[in-house]
Amino acid sequence: MSTLTLAVRDSSTMLRRNLLHARRYPSATLNLLLTPVMMLLLFVYVFGDAMSAGLGGSGADRSDYVAYIVPGILLMTVGSTTIGAAVYMAMDMTEGIIARFRTMSIHRSSVLIGHVVGSVLQSVMNVVLVGAVGVAIGFRSTDAGVLEWLAALGLVTLFSLALTWIAVGMGLSSPNAEAASNSAMPLILLPLISSAFIPAETMPGWLQPIAEYQPFTPAIETLRGLLLGSEIGHNGWLAVTWCLGLTVLGYLWSKALFNRDPK
User: Are 164 and 250 in contact (CB under 8 A)?
Assistant: First the structure.
């Protein structure tokens, strides 16, 4: 059996293990899904009229704000879901299963690949569910064709892959699951200071650079442009650059932590 065949076989086994773990503990997935859903409902039904008035400059049409906020909430869903990858990775490291895997004749990278692919699949599934909630409360994407929808799916998948590798590194570097959850909190906090809820140019001057020079804002603006037909500009290549850079960084960091000798 070739090295590639062995890697694919073992990675598939680890992927099934992680998907079974998620199925047996649905409460963990549900908790990660509830945060973006509650944020969506809160900002639409509590702050929606005031926010839409600020966006349009006159009048208060909540549907305008629904269209604006849903793309940001979708990528916030990716950030919240990947926290689970950090927690599960830390649990595997502290509960002894990784030590057992080290003694077995399996491809070493398959453990990491199983966690990453499983988390990406859960992220995409959660994005679909949150998107369904958005449609139920009035979100419509009338300007997006087949190519735009495929590009949007590709962006969500790539963004999820990038954040998952970073989350896996956080889990490997944490002493326990609680610490992993805390270290991954920026993945939820960063969207709050991005263009997810209000345009970056309307923020205070000192906050605008934080909103602009981070991965969530260009990804959100790109997704918003694909779904709503708004101007994407330079945000497209910025989003892809952020995703590729974080993927490479997270992969190298996670691999280095996983391959180090246990203490």
Answer: yes
Tokens in use for 220? 């959100």
Per-residue pLDDT tens digits for 217-242: 999 999 999 999 888 989 999 999 99
Q: What is the DSSP string of 82-125?
A: HHHHHHHHHHHHHHTHHHHHHTSSS-THHHHHHHHHHHHHHHHH
Three-state secondary structure call for residue 1: coil
Do residues 254 and 168 lie in contact, with contact meaning Cβ atoms separated by under 8 Å?
A: yes
Q: What share of the chain is helix, strand, coil (3-state, %, to 5)?
A: 80, 0, 20
42 Cβ contact list (under 8 Å, min separation 6): none
pTM for the complete prediction? 0.90
